[in-house]
Design a protein that fits this description.
Helix content: 55-70%
Strand content: 5-15%
Oligomer: single chain
Length: 386
């Protein structure tokens, strides 16, 4: 910079400028020179360094460098370089003007701090791209939440540094002074801190993950978790409405997570039909012959006195076992529940292979409709209040 200053002074010495005008033109030319150098270096970074880095990372076999050296991070880093050049070259120009020199130093330092904060937050955001899929494991979700904590820490430290630059104090002094005001800060940011702790508990305990189907009636949530942050859990309901639930609500209140069902072999079905007590009787010879003729039962299965409801339960269990959409290696049965004033409840309990909502409902409806249609063939009646 000294060489540039000498050259400009020699260049202006041959002019007729003197006194204040000479000093003003000299400072202006030095200022423009530094600005030009900073701009040229910025163009060099954007036009040469950034494409070169992108080309190198694209040719490597590893994937992590594509995320950690993506164009957003490189551009954020390029924004810092011109400020460093200004911070190094500009203050000596205004050595005779301490006030202007101090303002330039502070303004440049603040810009460098902000640009560094942006670079750090962009780098942290790029870490989330490693789990850019529809479902996250517990480790991935914990990393996602931890990135949110890191962003808060970076922004907090950046604000402390900016304030220390403005008031010309050490950042350590400001951090030490925060201890006296911690109680006030906790009161002001009570909701934020509560949400932060709840989000960490939610993800570290693997209570809910991105892609899970959850149900929470109090919040009106019944759909798939689209995103989890330290302050919100975004759920897309099946009617495509978006519900935002605070993490502390999921900690304080109960909610249903269908993740276990989705990973299991099937989805459970528990339905009951109510049989009229007056229709339960010992199967007559005519009923046995009719069931044999229709291929529902074999005569040797109905030897002696046998109850028509027993025959119905045996047939339905055998029929369920032969269906392709029923998980046969899981529990499936038909059982009697406690009698009620509305008839005798016969509960059907089994697991369907179809876990997706629409397919599940269609197959369940088909099975129940078949049951309703078969009840009269066994001499039974479904209870109906007249």
């Amino acid at each position: 910079m000294n060489e540039i200053t000498k050259y400009i002074e020699q260049l202006l010495a041959s002019t007729s400028l003197t006194g204040g005008w000479l000093s003003f033109v000299t400072l202006s030319m030095l200022f423009a020179t530094v600005a030009l150098i900073a701009w040229l270096v910025y163009l060099l970074c954007i036009k040469v360094v950034s494409p070169l880095a992108a080309r190198i990372t694209s040719r490597t076999d590893v994937v992590w460098d594509d995320y950690l050296f993506n164009p957003q991070i490189i551009r954020a880093a390029c924004n810092i370089v011109p400020a460093i050049i200004v911070w190094m070259l500009m203050p000596p120009i205004f050595s005779d003007y301490p006030i202007i020199q101090s303002l330039i130093l502070k303004a440049t330092a603040i810009y460098i701090t902000i640009a560094t904060m942006r670079l750090a937050t962009t780098f942290i955001s790029s870490l989330k791209l490693f789990d850019n899929n529809d479902k996250r494991s517990a480790t991935q979700q914990y990393l996602h939440s931890f990135c949110g904590v890191l962003k808060i820490i970076v922004i907090f430290l950046g604000v402390i540094v900016i304030i220390s630059i403005i008031i010309d104090r050490s950042p350590l002094t400001l951090l030490a002074g925060l201890g006296a005001t911690s109680a006030v800060l906790m009161l002001v940011f009570k909701d934020t801190i509560t949400g932060l702790v709840a989000g960490i508990r939610l993800t570290s305990n693997n209570m809910v993950r991105k892609g899970d189907w959850i149900t929470m009636s109090k919040a009106g949530a019944n759909g798939t978790v689209e995103d989890i942050t330290l302050s919100t859990v975004k759920v897309r309901n099946f009617d495509n409405t978006i519900v935002t639930v605070p993490p502390q609500k999921l900690i304080e209140d109960s909610f249903q997570n269908w993740h276990g069902m989705e990973e299991s072999a099937g989805r459970r079905v528990t339905r009951a039909i109510y049989i009229d007590f007056r229709s339960i009787a010992i199967a007559s010879d005519e009923l046995k012959k009719a069931l044999t003729a229709e291929g529902l039962m074999k005569m040797e299965e109905m030897n002696g006195d046998v109850i028509n409801l027993t025959l119905f339960r045996r047939y339905m269990e055998r029929w369920l076992e032969l269906r392709d959409d029923v998980v046969t290696n899981a529990t499936f049965l038909m059982r009697q529940l406690d009698p009620t004033e509305n008839g005798l409840p016969i509960e059907i309990y089994f697991f369907l292979k179809q876990k997706e909502w629409k397919a599940y409902e269609h197959h369940l409806a088909e099975i129940m409709e078949w049951m309703y249609a078969l009840v009269p063939k066994f001499g039974l009646k479904i209870y109906q209040r007249i």
